[in-house]
Every structure is written in structure tokens, then in C-alpha cells.
Design a protein that fits this description.
Length: 239
């Protein structure tokens, strides 16, 4: 047993291949390694170790993917004229604001999550927005963010030492303790090669709408909040 090293192993974890002797050791190893015990169907297998069982597993996995894709294609919202009309209207309004808004097919997570709307009376977008804080390994999702709100105001409840929520403030301590001049807001540039990923640097003093103009948005904006003094692998356009 690789957990207690005392008893003879009786079980092997399908996920991490660790040997265990009892249910207690199985639970311990799951807790220690954050292992869920479910076999990873997409785990890498070298050619030398590839067997007929691996081939059968891959074949069944592809069948499951095919069924899931077919079910998504048959989903009612795909053929719902109202949903299509709303999406077309949303893209059209974004185009008039000089934003290239693109939507994904039904079944994609971002399509399912997106709650962005356009208020015709106010002539204003209410965006679904994701904030990512890489240095704290934290993500937050905002809904109904008005397009005339500045990025500085959007970030206040998260990184402002006075106005931020105490729980959030504690998690994002590295940001709240840093001067505001050190905070940098980035957004990934879409449609670039994987080996040439670049980011736009956004202006915190300007509104969300002004920052999104002239850019490609897939479903909704994702903003990365980083600190200039800390090393990160995000290359800003032009650097």
C-alpha cells in the first residue's frame, strides 16, 4: 500500500494508479492528492504501452463525444427563431459600437454562460464580464455590467483597500496592498496563433465600452488584472 506502507495492496486507483490496501487508505490518498478516483479517459499513453483496451477506450470515448455533439445540435435553442433573432440583434448593436462580437454554437460553455443584453430604451449594453486575478489564482464573474462604467469603478469592490469586500480583499491581498499605479488590466487578442499570444492593455480611467471598441469579443470580455512589478508571461501588444 502506497499510503500506509504496511499492508498488502488490494486496490489500484483508476485515476492516479496508486495502490491501496483498504477503504480508509483509499480515502486518505484521495484527500492527500486531491484525486477524484475517476479514470482520465484523455490521459497520455505512449505507443509502447498502448493496448487493445486503450484502443477500445478511445473508441468509446469518441462515441460519447459524438452523442454529446449530436444532442447539442438537436437542442431546442438551436432552432429557436427568437433566440437567433436576439443573438443577431446583439451582434448588430455591437457592430454599430465598433465591437466585433462573435457568438459560439450551442453547447459551448461560454455560450451557455453568457448573459449579455442590450437595453434598447437606454441604448446601453449590460455585459457579462469575467475578471481574472492570476497572482491570487482567483476568478470572478459579473453580470449586468453597464457599458458606461469605468474599469476603475468595476474593480473597486475587488482591489480597493477601503471599498472592497473583506473576504475578497483577503483573497486578493497582494492586489489591495499594491499601489493603484501598479495595477494593469489586460485583455487577450483573439484570432492569433497559439505561439504568438498577445494582450491589449486597457485604460482603467475609460469606460468598458470605450475599451472594447475596435476589438474582437468572443461571447463576453475576460479581463486579466495583473501587477507590473510581478513577473507574468502575458506579452502586451507592441512589446
Amino acid at each position: 500500500c502506497e499510503t500506509c506502507s504496511q499492508e498488502e495492496a488490494k486496490y489500484r486507483c483508476p485515476r492516479c494508479m496508486k495502490y491501496s490496501c483498504s477503504l480508509l487508505c483509499v480515502k486518505k490518498h484521495k484527500l492527500a492528492l486531491s484525486c477524484n478516483g475517476v479514470r482520465d479517459k484523455t490521459a497520455f499513453v505512449s505507443v509502447n504501452e498502448f493496448t487493445d483496451l486503450n484502443l477500445l477506450s478511445d473508441y468509446r470515448f469518441l462515441e460519447d463525444v459524438g452523442r454529446a455533439a449530436d444532442a447539442a445540435a438537436r437542442h431546442l435553442t438551436v432552432h429557436n427563431p427568437t433566440a437567433k433573432k436576439l443573438l443577431y440583434g446583439l451582434r448588430n448593436k455591437a457592430r454599430k459600437c465598433d465591437i466585433d462580437l462573435r457568438t459560439l454554437p450551442v453547447g459551448f460553455t461560454k455560450r451557455r454562460e453568457n448573459s449579455t443584453t442590450f437595453n434598447c430604451m437606454e441604448k446601453k449594453f449590460y455585459w457579462h464580464l469575467k475578471l481574472v486575478f492570476p497572482h491570487s489564482h482567483a476568478e470572478y464573474t459579473l453580470k449586468g455590467v453597464p457599458d458606461d462604467k469605468t474599469l476603475a469603478d468595476i474593480l473597486k469592490p475587488y482591489i480597493d483597500p477601503v471599498e472592497s469586500d473583506p473576504v475578497v480583499c483577503q483573497r486578493l491581498k497582494i492586489y489591495t496592498m499594491s499601489p493603484q499605479s501598479d495595477v494593469q488590466i489586460l485583455m487577450k487578442i483573439e484570432n492569433r496563433k497559439q505561439n504568438s499570444v498577445r494582450y491589449y492593455e486597457l485604460d482603467a480611467r475609460r469606460s468598458l465600452l470605450d475599451n472594447l471598441k475596435g476589438k474582437v469579443i468572443i461571447e463576453y470580455p475576460t479581463l486579466f488584472v495583473v501587477l507590473k512589478t510581478l513577473k507574468n508571461d502575458m506579452v502586451v501588444l507592441g512589446q
